[in-house]
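TL;DR need structure tokens for one chain.
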Amino acid sequence: MFDIRSLPEMAFDHDRVIAQIHASLVWQARHMIVGQNVFTDRATAEELEKLHESICQRKDSTLITRAEKNGLLVRKNDFYEFVPFDPSGPDWHPLVW
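>> reply
TL;DR here they are.
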């Protein structure tokens, strides 16, 4: 396993492709919520914050509040669950990953 910021030399354009994927993931983590495919059904606030911090390399104290306000997470006891995609809504969904 390698740190995404210090990958070994790669063939073809794989380094460019990985850089684009990483930039997209950072953008999503800064503007939305990621982790739907990382955690099973639910996660604690600490787990979500740690995932986002590892992607963005900075803490975000408003992450959970913004995600709840935007209808991306629902708190159930000490855990947060991702709100499932509603196919009757718009044709885009912010939870890409």
